[in-house]
Amino acid sequence: MVREFDERNLAKSRAVCAAVAEEADTGKRRLTERERRILDMWPRFEDTGEPVMVGDAYVDTDGDDNIVAAVRFDRGCADLVGAEGFYTGFDPGERVKRPEPKVLDADGVEIKVGDTVYGIGRTEHQFEVIDPHHIDPEVGEAFSVRCYDSDEHEECHCKPKLLTHTRPDSWERLEEDAESIRQTIAYNFGDFSPSDFKRSGDSLQDRVSDIVRRAKALAGVEQ
Predict the structure, then answer these.
(1) What pLDDT sits at residue 11?
(2) Which of 9-18, 67-76, 146-155, 209-218 has the lowest mean pLDDT?
(3) Which one, out of 83, 160, 206, 217, has a CA that is 20 to 30 A from the CA of 96?
(4) Of the residues 96, 126, 144, the one at which a domain ends
(5) Residues 58, 133: one domain?
(6) Please, which domain of life does this record's source organism belong to (predicted)?
(7) Which residues form the domain of 123?
(8) Is the pTM for the entire model greater than 0.70?
(9) In total, how many domains does the chain have?
């Protein structure tokens, strides 16, 4: 028997499963053999045992996150049809894995393997993400992000809320940006001065570099 449940039958299928399960639990009536076979075949999540329904997120056979578009039964097994129409088969009793929850940084941006992130607060280092779903035994089941500290050259664990994908501003970064602009001007215009009579330190390159010096002077930062 092959039967397909699509989005139009989502509410109905949920209600039927809930009603059948309730009747089985409360003893209102005995399940028919057909109903029992359907319940036995119906795929369930491994964490809660809840039935998998159309629209639920799951992990397919390729290990990718997917969305259930339909549930099919064929020869005693259940197939989850993904959003792109590909099937993932499950034997009776085999549980379905949910996608891992997203780990977000301080700005609400998802942290992924290979990302470059920056510390905020006391440790303003640059990190490369190794595992965003690391579970640190010292803090129990809470996720910590396992990273490589590019400044200290060692692995470490960071709280997601203390990381950001946005590179923090600094005097060093301001100087780097000013130097980049200065070199661009020199490459395209040469030693260009907007004054009628060229004076030492009056070129556009010199003026750009001088902005950093003036900003540091106003902030009371040593040169």
Answers:
(1) 56
(2) 9-18
(3) 160
(4) 96
(5) no
(6) Bacteria
(7) 116-164
(8) no
(9) 3
Whether the CB-CB separation of 72 and 79 falls below 8 Å is answered with: yes
Contact 145, 111 (CB under 8 A): yes
Contact 43, 71 (CB under 8 A): yes
Q: Where are the beta strands (DSSP E) in the chain?
A: 4-5, 44-45, 57-59, 65-67, 70-74, 77-81, 87-90, 95-96, 116-119, 126-135, 143-149, 154-158, 163-164
- Whether 103 is in a domain gets the answer no
Confidence (pLDDT) at 204: 74
Tokens of 79: 């197939």
- Which phi and psi (to 5°) does residue 177 adopt? -65, -40
Q: How far is CA 50 from the centre of its chain?
A: 25
Q: What is the pLDDT of residues 95-113, one digit of tens each?
A: 999 988 888 999 999 999 9
Chain Cα centroid distance, residue 11:
30
* Cβ-based neighbour number of residue 4 at 10 Å: 13
